Amino acid sequence: MFAKAFFLLALIPSILAVDHAVTVGQGNTLSFTPSSITAAVGDTVTFTVVSRNHSVTTTNFSGAVCPPPPGGVGPNGFDSGFLSDLDGSLPSFTYKVVDTAPHFGACMQAAGGHCRAGMTFAINPTTTQTYEQFLANARSS
Ligand SMILES: *[C@@H]1O[C@H](CO)[C@@H](O)[C@H](O)[C@H]1NC(C)=O
Ligand SMILES: *[C@@H]1O[C@H](CO)[C@@H](O)[C@H](O)[C@H]1NC(C)=O
Ligand SMILES: [Cu+2]
């Protein structure tokens, strides 16, 4: 009886965990679609590259935004490395969300050229660190 209840409670986080699908380079554009998501600890975010050759790499909210550094800015940052769809292979990268902090990402390609063109992405932006402000910071970095 108790064992069964504990077993069911243990299952709840995995049942509620969500995978957020993000398309990278939709319609051959320099973009992440959607460009901002809200995710819970335990959720995953799967980035699928559907054109050209891009990365998703965490970076600073402000200051030196573009290009994101190899390895990404942490804590709990990430870097997909370059993922090329030039061969039509639709490569993907999955990040598991381990905290509730905001994470700002961008593409490293072209020495920051894609990032400055607005190829930016946010997980859990806040009212003080909004996606719109991050995008503006990237465009002027
Ligand atoms: C993807 O881009 C990176 C960085 O510009 C480059 O080093 C790599 O060779 C590219 N990959 C392909 C398959 O073109
Ligand atoms: C941005 O990230 C780099 C690491 O790439 C770090 O050295 C730098 O201090 C960070 N902060 C700002 C405001 O640029
Ligand atoms: Cu790119």
Automatic annotation (TrEMBL):
<keyword id="KW-0732">Signal</keyword>
<feature type="signal peptide">
    <location>
        <begin position="1"/>
        <end position="17"/>
    </location>
</feature>
<protein>
    <submittedName>
        <fullName>Uncharacterized protein</fullName>
    </submittedName>
</protein>
<dbReference type="InterPro" id="IPR008972">
    <property type="entry name" value="Cupredoxin"/>
</dbReference>
<dbReference type="InterPro" id="IPR052953">
    <property type="entry name" value="Ser-rich/MCO-related"/>
</dbReference>
